[in-house]
Amino acid sequence: MQDTDPANPISQAERLAAWVRLEQTPGVGAVTAQRLLERFATPQSIFSASYLALRQIVSDSVACALCEPMPDACAAYLDIVRDWLADPHHQLLTLDDPAFPPLLRELALPPLLLYACGRVELLSAPAVAIVGSRNATGQGAANARAFASALSAAGLTIVSGLALGIDAAAHEGGLRGPGSTVAVTGTGADRIYPRRNEALARRIADEGCIVSEYPLGTGPTPGNFPRRNRLISGMCCAVLVVEAAAGSGSLITARQALEQGRDVFAIPGSIHAPLSKGCHSLIREGATLVDCVDDILVPLRVAPLATLARQPDPTASLSAAQRALLDALGFEPVGADALGLLAGREAGALAAQLLSLELAGHLERLPGGLFQRVQR
């Protein structure tokens, strides 16, 4: 924290303390905080205001809380924040901070504080959110990773929620390019959830950025994640939904993006696949159907990545029999019996070839004894 500026008698430490205290004051939610800031401009002015001035805006109990000395619990939490900020990779951005993401500041109720680990400049970079199912198919994860990698190569930062499935694949793809990635969490920035993504989270903290509006120490309660989703869409110029079941949280993010005036894109899938239902619903509601990265880059006025069309064929190393089996499989889920009839293979040979293709990452087993091709 900086020393006192001669031109400003309030030090950076005092300024941050006032913002933290405002957020921690009981009864001061997003709406009340906004009304107070509209009237008094800064947290310091709020805490310097008289009871009568505060009472014109807030209830008696809130006005009393704002006039009283800082509670011991808040002072203790400030000590935790100061210890956390001792790490040079950690930053606490306030709503009036020049580094606060400009698109988030445009939200109807922006967060007062953002706790960030890593490259804070990415929070203001041109970004695309990629979201989807936690229970992603192999093809869905491959699509998320490939689109994220290509968008990152074009200089766009990939934003997602650090969940399993599509989110994790999107972060992995984003880390491959100069755009990198931002993980918006539904916990405190000092917590990693889910634990299975711990290694990925640590890499994002080193090479990208982890950000949260929740106080340090906040655990993964269910109500945090829908609220977190508005930040994912809010800091981006567009949202891509890769796989989503009907009624999934990813659809909440997409619809919030529409309300925020962002572009929404969706990857279609099989009419038989439950995880395609959400994307198809979004497309019916006006989302743009995409089947290549240029379908996103061109509307966003980013130079197309025509070189992607010249990538090597991932099936080139397969035998003729393996390629013929993949051609027979197509891109719809198919049972082994039906596939055997289509490909003209007897059960033993078919099982061995399916296993070899699965191990090579060209297909995956789905529930119900079905197989689906994975386009890499």
Structure, described:
This protein is an alpha/beta fold and 376 residues long. The protein folds into three domains: 1-82, DNA polymerase, domain 1 (Orthogonal Bundle); 120-310, Rossmann fold; 320-373, Arc Repressor Mutant, subunit A, CATH 1.10.10. The protein is 43% helix and 13% strand. The chain is built from 17 helices and twelve strands. It has helices at 12-24, 30-40, 43-48, 51-55, 60-67, 72-85, 102-105, 138-153, 166-174, 198-207, 224-234, 249-259, 277-284, 294-297, 320-329, 336-343, 347-359, and strands at 90-94, 113-118, 127-131, 157-160, 181-184, 209-212, 238-241, 263-266, 288-289, 334-335, 363-366, 370-373. It has a nine-stranded mixed beta sheet with strand order 1-2-6-5-4-3-7-8-9, sandwiched between helices. The chain has a three-stranded antiparallel beta sheet with strand order 10-12-11. Helix 8 (138-153) runs parallel beside helix 9 (166-174) and helix 11 (224-234) packs across helix 12 (249-259). Residues 1-6 have low confidence and may be disordered.
